[in-house]
């Protein structure tokens, strides 16, 4: 588990016990790199996130696909890869905390655009311009392929 203070990935579990509700395990963690202490909770996830397309079709949420579309939009932008990872994790956490496991694809697109707009305008414009066609096409695979990186031959 990555240290939330310094980013060190080698943190230690000092203590592990069921939380009061007995549906989660509470772990106290310690970061030997910065001395930071933090707590994590381990929970059973009964249902995975499902994406509801505007056609009504359901598809398992695929973090990899989301990640690809974001990385392509951010291609060659001067943004630290670690920052991009954090951003993607932040988006996934937001989706998980929406309170419903069924998430309209539109909501995902909006959260991504909102996040990109705060981080990098160029990436936001790239994503948003393709996203508009994507909404019409309602096809995430098509969306990802339209966002594909420029091939070296085209440069
Ligand atoms: Zn640390």
Automatic annotation (TrEMBL):
Membrane-spanning parts: none
Q: Which Pfam families does the entry link to? A: ATP-cone, Zn_ribbon_NrdR
* ZnF unnamed span: 3-34
- InterPro entries to which the protein is assigned, alphabetical: ATP-cone_dom, NrdR-like_N, RNR_NrdR-like
Q: Is-annotated flag, keyword Cell membrane?
A: no
Query: ATP-cone domain: from which residue to which, for each copy?
Result: 49-139
Cofactor(s) needed by this chain:
Zn(2+)
GO BP annotations of the record are: negative regulation of DNA-templated transcription
Q: Give the protein family.
A: Belongs to the NrdR family.
Q: Main role? A: Negatively regulates transcription of bacterial ribonucleotide reductase nrd genes and operons by binding to NrdR-boxes.
Q: What is this protein called?
A: Transcriptional repressor NrdR
**The encoding gene:** nrdR
């Amino acid at each position: 588990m990555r240290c939330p203070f310094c980013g060190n990935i080698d943190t230690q579990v000092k203590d592990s016990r069921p939380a009061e509700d007995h549906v989660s395990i509470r772990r106290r963690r310690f970061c030997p790199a910065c001395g930071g202490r933090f707590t994590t909770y381990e929970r059973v996830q009964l249902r995975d996130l499902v994406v509801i397309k505007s056609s009504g079709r359901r598809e398992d949420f695929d973090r990899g696909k989301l990640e690809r579309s974001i990385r392509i939009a951010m291609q060659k932008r001067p943004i630290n890869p670690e920052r991009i990872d954090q951003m993607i994790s932040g988006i996934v956490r937001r989706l998980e905390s929406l309170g419903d496991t069924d998430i309209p694809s539109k909501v995902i697109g909006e959260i991504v655009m909102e996040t990109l707009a705060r981080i990098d305008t160029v990436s936001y414009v790239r994503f948003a311009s393709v996203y508009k066609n994507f909404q019409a096409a309602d096809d995430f695979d098509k969306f990802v392929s339209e966002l594909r990186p420029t091939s070296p031959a085209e440069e």
